[in-house]
Design goal:
- It is a single chain.
- The protein has 305 residues and is α+β, with helices and mostly antiparallel strands.
- It contains seven helices and 18 strands.
- Strands 1, 2, 3, 4, 11, 12, 13, 14, 15, 16, 17 and 18 form a twelve-stranded mixed beta sheet that branches.
- The longest helix is centred in the N-terminal third of the chain and has 10 residues, at 32-41.
- 48% of the residues are buried.
- The mean pLDDT is 94.
């Protein structure tokens, strides 16, 4: 039997999008219409304007062809004066959404970082999908993330944090949560506040070009994350016990389970690789790196379901 990761089922065109960016509606430097147009110029199919604590449905540049996903970014922190916080991007549908256009929410304060659960619960109650943002920049470790429940998506790449601080660029904590049985999909986002931060991290989604289809695909994990390389297929053959990934030309392919790769394959213009899956593995994912050091990540295939 072939278990194919959901991003690669069927023959639909993969849509390119960013789920985290800011405009002058909060602390971003670009006007909303300019921001949407800029992503349109870069070939994006969809975009979420996630200004801080202010929900948005509006497409400020519909002529761009970019689908705008309803969204905002929520935040909360402990009283500790050091950076120790939780940020959550909340994305939702055009209808049957508990948030209104321009609705503002409070920045939360809590005794311990698990208080971030309140934001996750608020997003879910509004029929939104919560995405935990930049955990390294936030100073939130895997053990603290494990205290929070009911989120199935987290950032594994954040362009603003990677470019400004060299943080949130190597999928830290993701494998630890996965190995402990959490089913979490990895998202690459820009978190762009400035134009130079745009276009470096995105997801490619197996969906039709409308909000409902894109949101449904993201919920199901039918996407992969990238900073440049393309991934064309990822599957496990349960009869042979082998996992296969197919990609654009890269120089490194890693199959991952917990922090230690099963195997690292290196060479020039590698377009795929195959390995034996270790018996008892609860998940497997693949990561590819091109000659410029840009990465792409499949979402996991879960083998314990």
């Amino acid at each position: 039997m072939i278990i194919r990761q959901a991003a690669f089922e069927g023959k639909r065109k993969m849509l390119k999008g960013n789920l985290h960016c800011h405009t002058t509606r909060s602390d971003g430097k670009g006007e909303p219409d300019v921001t949407v147009r800029q992503y349109g110029y870069m070939g994006y199919d969809f975009l979420a304007l996630t200004d801080h604590r202010c929900y948005n449905y509006e497409n400020y540049a519909p002529e761009s062809g970019v689908v705008v996903i309803p969204a905002m970014e929520m935040d909360g922190r402990t009283e500790d004066p050091r950076v120790h916080c939780v940020h959550v991007v909340s994305i939702g549908p055009e209808k049957e959404n508990g948030f209104e256009q321009d609705q503002r929410v409070e920045s939360l304060r809590f005794d311990k970082i698990a208080g971030g659960q309140d934001m996750i619960d608020q997003a879910l109650a509004a029929n939104n999908l919560p995405i935990v943002c930049h955990p390294e920049w936030s100073g939130t470790g895997a053990s603290e993330l494990e205290e929070m429940q009911d989120f199935g998506h987290m950032e594994i790449w954040n362009s603003a944090c990677a470019m400004g601080y060299r943080l949130d660029m190597y999928a830290s904590y993701w494998d630890e949560l996965l190995c402990h049985g959490r089913k979490i999909y990895g998202v690459a986002s820009d978190d762009a506040h400035h134009i130079h931060q745009m276009g470096h991290g995105y997801i490619k989604v197996n969906a039709e070009k409308n909000v409902a289809s894109i949101l449904d695909a993201i919920r199901k994990g039918a996407f992969y994350a990238s900073c440049g390389p393309e991934i064309y297929d990822f599957f496990v053959d349960t009869e042979t016990g082998k996992a296969t990934v197919v990609s654009s030309p890269v120089e490194t392919i890693r199959f991952r389970h917990f922090h230690v790769p099963y195997r690292v394959i290196e060479g020039k213009d590698i377009c795929g690789a195959q390995i034996d899956v270790i018996p008892g593995t609860n998940y497997i994912r693949a990561e590819v790196i091109d000659k410029e050091g840009r990465r792409a990540w499949t979402n996991p295939i879960f083998l314990d379901v």
